[in-house]
């Protein structure tokens, strides 16, 4: 009888370990998705070129984590919020603003007053469609629309 109970306890403990491991995996995937969506939205609002958003996400992962309240936070190894030289907490928006100096290629180049630059086939509607595709992460659709614009 005792052996049966011990076996049942061992079996239940194994199942609990398996479920706990699975929970951790899916929790990590969920947190990554929430953080990526937040960062993608901030990058889009900041005017980052759609084709640069993936690079922004990769660089941001080295600095940001998802806080317990669901906010995206920059923390050091000791768990303290990171601040910039001005003493402001580094948020994704603040970080992206600082990236304008170090990574200007993330933003479209200036086309000047009234000039259309090299984007002669683009219009506001197409630009919005490209931004929407990039926000969704639909790179196939994005590339297809870009190739249609090119010729």
Question: What would the keywords be for this entry?
Answer:
mainly alpha; two-stranded antiparallel ribbon; elongated; 151 residues; 2 domains
Order of helices and strands: HHEEHHH
CA-based gyration radius: 23 Å
Q: What is the distance, rounded to the nearest whole angstrom, between the alpha carbons of the first and last residues? A: 78 Å
- Major sheet strand order: 1-2
Specify the overall morphology. elongated
Number of helices: 5
The portion of residues forming beta strands comes to under 5%
Tell me the number of structural domains.
2
Q: What percent of residues adopt helix (DSSP H or I)?
A: 55-70%
In the predicted model, the low-confidence regions spanning at least 5 consecutive residues are none
Structural class: mainly alpha
Largest sheet: 2 strands, antiparallel
What is the number of strand segments?
Answer: 2
Query: What do the pLDDT scores average to?
Result: 83
Structure notes:
By secondary structure, this protein is mainly alpha-helical. Strand 1 and strand 2 form a beta hairpin. The longest helix has 44 residues. The protein is elongated, with a radius of gyration of 23 Å. The model has no long low-confidence stretch (mean pLDDT 83).
